[in-house]
Amino acid sequence: MLVKTYGSAIHGVDAILITIEVNVSQGKNFHLVGLPDNAVKESHHRLVALMANIDRKFPRRRVVVNMAPADIKKEGSAYDLPIAIGLMAASEQIIGEGLEEYMMMGELSMDGGLNPVRGALPMALKAKEEGYKGLILPASNAQEAAIVEELSVYGCNHISEVIEMFDEKKMIATTKVSAEELLSQNLNNYPFDFEDVKGQENIKRALEIAAAGGHNVIMIGPPGSGKTMLAKRLPSVLPPLSLDEALETTKIHSVAGLMNGDQALITNRPYRSPHHTISDAGLVGGGTYPQPGEISLAQNGVLFLDELPEYRRSVLEVMRQPMEDRMVTISRARVTVDYPASFMLIAAMNPCPCGYYNHPEKECVCSPGVVKSYLNRISGPLMDRIDLHVEVTPVPFSDLAEAPPGEKSSMVRERVIIARKIQEERFKDQLKVYSNSQMSNKDVHVYCRLDESGKSLLKNAMEKLNLSARAYDRIIKVSRTIADLDNTPDIRSDHLAEAIQYRSLDRESWGL
Length: 512
Hints:
There is one protein chain. By secondary structure, the chain is of the alpha/beta class. The chain has two domains: about 1-165, Ribosomal Protein S5, domain 2, CATH 3.30.230.10; about 185-400 and about 410-505, P-loop containing nucleotide triphosphate hydrolases (Rossmann fold, 3-Layer(aba) Sandwich). It is about 35% helix and about 15% strand. The protein has 22 helices and 18 strands. It has helices at about 40, 45-55, 80-90, 120-130, 140-145, 160-165, 180-185, 200-215, 225-230, 245-255, 280-285, 295, 315, 320-325, 370-375, 380-385, 395-400, 410-425, 440-445, 450-465, 470-485, 495-500, and strands at about 1-10, 15-25, 30-35, 60-70, 100-105, 105-110, 115, 135-140, 150-155, 215-220, 270, 285, 290, 300-305, 325-330, 335-340, 345-350, 390. Helix 20 packs parallel to helix 22 (about 495-500) and helix 21 (about 470-485) crosses helix 22 (about 495-500).
């Protein structure tokens, strides 16, 4: 007897429909075909033990399980549930009526318990797209899948609940979740706030500009000056996630297996801070079985790289194309997958190996030329993609002890949201341009025109400060964002002057 059940495979951050065809006929042996990996093949032994433990019989006849389409690699143990239900229906141990109306996935333990799987949200989106009546998943994945509207999601703890659904028509309660309510409830739920930062007003201003325009930032300063503390608070001033952004971010974390059982949706912008020993594949994604890397997990959020010169050169260089394209393509012999990579890069570094170059109180002990050599560990093309260079100095004791609390993140975020709305209106007819940092050279000429005084100021700054040519466009883009924060249509000289001071590492005299 032939029975078909339906599951899905994860390809990149999306799901592909998989049809599991189970045929039980005269003969012997068990055959599992359709390009399964070792984890899928091992389901045979799990299912033999499982069916004995739930008082069912594994068919002692010729069993062929085909997973179609046969040219797509099937990975993981999540196919246990559809194979088990298909086996019982094909051997007439349960009534298989209505199986074609449901997609199901789940790993089975030997006592019949359902263990969580990766990629529940992409599976739910695929089930809705294909027109299935419902999706059957482990209970720990139900909250995440239930974010998808107009799809019945059944969270089960044991295979007996699934059997009863088809054999006895005893339907369990569906899981209900409201994405809009989750987003509104967690709007201001941030663990860190700018009001905790004493002093450093110029650095907070630079991060506000970065948040308003989506600009990348590098902070350079001695140990203990507050670089990491400031970076951790940047997500709290970014605009709240839209529903589409939240779903996109949740899909990536779901595929990577980072969703908790009680977590239905990523409601705050991600903040990722990988250690400097990370590999190329760990940062951009990949591996034997491709998985999203840190730059994709930071989608719609912040990627913080502390001690930037300590990262291997090859690791930093692989970021260059994803930073430009906001997409990373992982190519292997049999498969090519795309992962989104639209993130804000916040980097931090000491000014020299000892950490005290330009320190107001402590003396640098590095020999001549070492400071410049230390900075040269970061390539020019990578530095070219960083808009704001911010020098961070230690906060005096008097400011730490006596300064009142700083401005709340919620107040800064209000100004950032207004600036982002101006940019949204400006680029509404542009494809894949959402903020000032993403403007092309053509867009810069259209939206960032300077008056004569502005041109003169910029020319003098380029000549007197010996700024490099790559600083030109960056200064104009940042000044456009500063003008948006001031809610002015034109870029004024004071906007340009403020933007110029954020290019310190481009000055030829820096580090000499």
